[in-house]
Amino acid sequence: MKVEIYSDVACPWCYIGKARFERALGAFAGAAGVDVVFRPYQLDPATPRAAVPMFQYLEQRFGPGAGGMVARVADTARQEGLTMDFEHGLAANTFDAHRLMWLAEREHGADVQRALGERLFRAHFAEGRDIGDAEALAELAAAAGMDASRARAFLGTDEGTDEVRRQVAEAQEMGITAVPTFVFDDRYAVQGAQPTSAFLQVLEQVAAEAQATGAEAAPDAAASCANGACEA
Fold first, then answer.
1. Residue 39 in contact with residue 208, Cβ under 8 Å?
2. In angstroms, rounded to a whole number, what is the distance separating the alpha carbons of residues 142 and 200?
3. So what's the pLDDT on residue 232?
4. Alpha helical stretches, state H, 80-213
5. How far is CA 31 from CA 4, 5, 193, in A?
6. pLDDT in the model for residue 214
7. What is the distance between the alpha carbons of residues 13 and 190, in angstroms, rounded to a whole number?
8. What is the β-pairing status of strands 35-40 and 2-7?
9. CA separation for the pair 23, 135 (Å, rounded)
10. CA neighbours within 13 Å on the CB side: how many for 97?
């Protein structure tokens, strides 16, 4: 089974959804046969390259209701064992982070890409790091098992730019307008940071149908959980 997770490092619900999905995967009997790959999506491509205080950015984008919004999502994150420090966080453009995720999968495989994704989310939401800064990204790459020198050199070029843009465009053509969106075997699209039990149910259902049919069925997207997703 292949699961493609369309997400953005700047999306708090993507971090929460990732944690819930991984918990479900850990409880799934067929986990060894599941390939998980992250795909890029940018909620706000216009986010400045130079980092700005996260709360300032959110207030500018969402208005005076931003405070209540972040308080609710931070409380949900705490229930999942995650830290989200919006007060000390930095908002930055995530495109280079997506390029680095593309490089991780291409040169190291899905496991390293997943490790990098975890480091990026933690750096952004819990550690107040600038995920738009090339040096910070190179350090995070090294922490995930990549070569820092290769990552640093890569980020100084345009390598991966066209590929990431193409993947974002493909996501939009598929009708993805909010993240996280989890696509199972190119057949089912589940949107939002669903409860762990819901992810486990989908994993079991997709596995059972694949075993019963022995062949791939036609694509069938089913999106839900709008309150647990970030929209562009």
1. no
2. 32
3. 66
4. 95-108, 110-125, 134-143, 148-155, 161-173, 196-213
5. 15, 16, 19
6. 65
7. 13
8. parallel
9. 31
10. 31
The radius of gyration computed from the CA coordinates of the chain, to the nearest angstrom, equals 17
Which residue in 177, 194, 186, 193 sits closest to 215, CA to CA?
186
- Report pTM: 0.91
Task: Give the Å distances, CA to CA, from 53 to 87, 91, 167.
Answer: 8, 6, 29
Cα distance between residue 72 and residue 84, in whole Å:
11
The CA distance from 210 to 175, in Å, is 24
Burial class (CB in 10 A: 0-12, 13-18, 19+), 222: exposed
Q: What is the model's pLDDT at position 219? A: 40
Dihedral sign, CA of 123, 93, 95, 219?
positive
Residue 200's identity, in one-letter code, is L
- 10-residue mean pLDDT series, the chain (232 residues): 97 98 97 97 93 94 92 97 96 98 98 98 98 98 98 98 97 94 94 97 94 57 49 68
Q: Which residues of 113-137 are buried (b: 16+ CB within 10 A; e: fewer)?
A: bbbbbbbbbbbbbbbbbbbbbbebb
End-to-end C-alpha distance for the chain, whole angstroms: 28
Q: What is the pLDDT of residues 171-215, one digit of tens each?
A: 999 999 999 999 999 989 999 999 999 999 999 999 999 888 764
